[in-house]
Sequence to fold (55 residues):
Amino acid sequence: MPRNIKQILSWLLFGFIIYAIITSPERAADIVQAVWDIIATGFRNIGRFFSSLIE
Fold:
């Protein structure tokens, strides 16, 4: 993708994120919490997997 198009899309995405946070902070917080839960669960499951390999 050309550099200019990639930069424009990045700025549009950044602007949309800021807009979403300003217009609905509760919903944005819920989304961040859900993403954090998914990441934490993934790391926990990876840890369990390697722990079970060691045992």
In short: DSSP finds two helices and no strands in the chain. Helices lie at 3-23, 25-54. The chain has a mean pLDDT of 92.
